[in-house]
């Protein structure tokens, strides 16, 4: 009888342990299910700076760091689900929740732009270590890279690139999206010769730029190979007109730059369309 009592006590103890373990397992399961998207993203991407090999949102593997500029970091990645190469732009809001929310909204808005001269945004990921834009991979070179390696561009190429850029800016503005500040680094010429504008959702301050002025500044740099030093809508002292910097540039190009950057309403173009019309002074566009 004593043996039976001992055996019964052991069985009751084992049952109690099993019940306790079961309750603990249920509580843990519920806790894990309650974790939000940010927690899951942290588990997948970590909270520190991204590094090669990281997988974003469980499907975009960072394959290589491309570079860093004022708009953020650029990465090349592989979309595991579709087996394709994509470009990833990381925007860092820091510890500012308002900046994070603004970047998130701008990224989603930019993802709605569908234009042959705009780099497509596929997805915006809000992760602990930044807001990541997953974009169309565009093999080619930026105008900034062209200027750095080859100097000023041929006049016909300048016209073709800026006509395409202007078309992209006008379309985006009609959709309620303003580029934060067009620069040579924002203009990409693909290996196939197409012109694409990128970085529509990279405004650190959430403010759109002046399309006309930005086009004029790009024109000056593409014609001369050096950035325009223009403050308050006028040439800085010592600055030279494009025709003074580069032989072969028609004086009409000087007027084109002035009409784009001037703060004087009497000198400034009425809009981007007038600027595009003036690009004919550069001769026929490169085919």
Polypeptide structure, described:
The chain is 41% helix and 20% strand. The protein starts with a helix and ends in a 9-residue tail after the last helix. The protein contains nine helices and eleven strands. A hairpin with a 3-residue loop joins strand 1 and strand 2. The N terminus is likely disordered.
Give the ordered list of helices and strands: HHEEEEHEEEHHEEHEEHHH
Major sheet strand order: 1-2-3-4-6-5
Q: Quote the beta fraction.
A: 15-25%
The overall average pLDDT, rounded, is 81
Topology overview:
Blueprint lengths: L1 H32 L3 H9 L9 E2 L3 E10 L2 E8 L4 E8 L5 H14 L10 E7 L2 E7 L3 E3 H8 L4 H20 L12 E4 L4 E3 L13 H14 L5 E2 L2 E2 L6 H4 L5 H11 L10 H7 L9
Helix pairs in contact: 5-6, 6-8
Protein traits:
six-stranded antiparallel β-sheet; elongated; alpha+beta; disordered N terminus; 287 residues; 11 strands; 9 helices
Summary, kept brief:
This protein is an alpha+beta fold and 287 residues long. It has helices spanning 2-33, 37-45, 97-110, 143-150, 155-174, 211-224, 242-245, 251-261, 272-278; strands spanning 55-56, 60-69, 72-79, 84-91, 121-127, 130-136, 140-142, 187-190, 195-197, 230-231, 234-235.
């Amino acid at each position: 009888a004593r043996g039976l009592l001992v055996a019964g006590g052991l069985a009751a103890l084992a049952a109690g342990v099993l019940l306790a373990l079961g309750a603990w397992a249920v509580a843990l399961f519920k806790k894990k299910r309650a974790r939000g998207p940010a927690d899951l993203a942290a588990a997948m991407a970590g909270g520190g700076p991204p590094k090669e090999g990281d997988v974003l949102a469980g499907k975009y593997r960072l394959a290589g760091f491309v570079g860093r500029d004022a708009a953020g970091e650029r990465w090349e990645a592989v979309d595991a689900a579709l087996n394709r190469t994509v470009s990833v732009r990381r925007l860092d809001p820091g510890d500012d929740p308002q900046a994070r929310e603004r970047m998130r909204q701008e990224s989603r808005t930019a993802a709605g732009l569908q234009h042959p001269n705009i780099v497509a945004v596929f997805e915006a990921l809000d992760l602990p270590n930044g807001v990541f834009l997953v974009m169309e991979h565009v093999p080619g070179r930026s105008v900034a890279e062209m200027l750095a390696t080859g100097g000023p561009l041929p006049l016909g190429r300048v016209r073709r690139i800026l006509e395409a850029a202007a078309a992209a800016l006008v379309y985006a503005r009609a959709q309620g999206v303003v580029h934060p500040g067009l620069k040579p680094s924002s203009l990409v010429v693909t290996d196939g010769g197409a012109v694409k504008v990128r970085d529509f959702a990279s405004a650190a301050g959430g403010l759109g730029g002046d399309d006309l002025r930005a086009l004029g500044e790009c024109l000056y740099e593409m014609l001369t190979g050096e950035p325009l030093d223009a403050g308050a809508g006028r040439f800085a002292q010592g600055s030279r007109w494009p025709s003074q910097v580069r032989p072969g540039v028609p004086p009409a190009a000087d007027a084109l730059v002035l009409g784009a950057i001037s703060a004087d309403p009497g000198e400034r173009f009425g809009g981007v369309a007038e600027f595009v019309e003036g690009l004919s002074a550069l001769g026929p566009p490169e085919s």
